[in-house]
Amino acid sequence: MLQLLRGKRLPFLIAVLAIALSGCSASPLVPKGQQAREQLDLMILSLAIMTLVVVVVFSIAIYVLIKFRRRKGDDEIPKQVEGNHKLEIIWTVIPLILLLILIVPTVGRTFNHDQNLSEDPNAVKVQVVAHQFWWEFNYPELGIYTSQDLVIPVGRDISFELTSADVIHSFWIPALGGKKDTNPGLTSYFHLTPLETGVYKGKCAELCGDSHALMDFTVVVVSEEEFNAWVENMREPAQAVAAEDLEQGRVIYEANCLYCHAVQPDVRSAVAPHLNGFADRQRIAGILPHNEENLKDWIRDPAEIKPGTLMPKMPLSEEELDQLTKFLLELK
Ligand code: CUA
To answer: Which atom from ligand 1 is nearest to the alpha carbon of 132?
Structure first.
């Protein structure tokens, strides 16, 4: 490691890290929401003030060290002084002014970001319930129950009502703004305003068990029209049942999965992720690319992929697994 940090490699590593962070869809350094932008502004403001202080203090220190250094033959003790009223006032007042410049926007935004918009008629309300190790997203005003993919419209205030079904988790969408804990037995509120459409990463930011690091979710920010179309679609019963070759898969689903995974649009799924609209999801189990192979791997042995998950191994033959995944991947 030390070798890596020697010579020209350090600036190179820093450059690579900066590019990686800035290109990431999950970075607070590339804000895609109102609150994230305001938070980044505050970070830049405090960095600018700190840089100014460092530059000024070090310049004065270096100047004084050189100018008043001990010279050859200079053996006298310098004139002893005790305090300087003017200087003391200057170095007390300047930091006070700098702190005020930092405090005013920081306090203002802290209160602003902490507002509770749960009664605001213009805000889209989403109830978030965190589980070991998945996310439940319910839209009480729209009558929609879903999981893992959070679909929200661009430019609107989204009011989140946060709680947990088991331990403390933390709800975090780095590209849209800061995070907030979800606590069992307690409801807290939080809001975000996405400003650009796109797909962003959501994380659990509180150590919550074996698969804490795998407790990801996806945030899909869409236009108002696309959001309305999604709402309409989610209110319809999931349709995969029409096709004949999926009938066998549906039977397997109902016998093995339905007990925990609800699929009816108007039923909450409080034990395991809701599967309405599963075909259009971005990820399998919140982390794997959404394809048939990964879905099969997940169902074959969930704990291999997410240690500590409550999802059991299903006693299915390869043929049954084949029929089940076909059915699930058509569940729209
Ligand atoms: Cu949930 Cu970490």
So the answer is: 1
CB of 180 closer than 8 Å to CB of 171 = yes
The distance of Cα 92 from the centroid of its chain, to the nearest Å, equals 40
Segment 8-33, tens digit of pLDDT: 666 666 655 555 554 446 788 899 99
Residue nearest to atom 1 of ligand 1 (CA): 169
- The vertex-328 CA angle with 220 and 150, nearest 5°, equals 15
155: phi > 0 → left, psi -120 to 50 → alpha, else beta; which? left
Using CA of residue 306, residue 131, residue 168, residue 203, what is the dihedral sign?
positive
pLDDT digits (tens, 9 = 90+) for 156-197: 999 999 999 999 999 999 999 989 999 999 999 999 999 999
Residue 130 alpha carbon to ligand 1 centre in Å: 8
pTM greater than 0.70 (yes/no): yes
* 131 ligand 1 Cβ < 6 A: no
At 114-173, the pLDDT tens digits run: 999 999 999 999 999 999 999 999 999 999 999 999 999 999 999 999 999 999 999 999
To the nearest 10°, the Cα dihedral for 27, 166, 290, 216? 10
| CA–CA distance, 47 with 63 (Å, rounded to integer) | 24
318 phi, psi to nearest 5 deg: -60, -35
What is the Cα–Cα distance from 263 to 243, expressed in whole angstroms?
17
Tokens standing for residue 172:
């975090």
SS3 81: coil
Helix (H, G, I), strand (E, B) or coil at 175: coil
Q: What is the DSSP letter of 80?
A: P
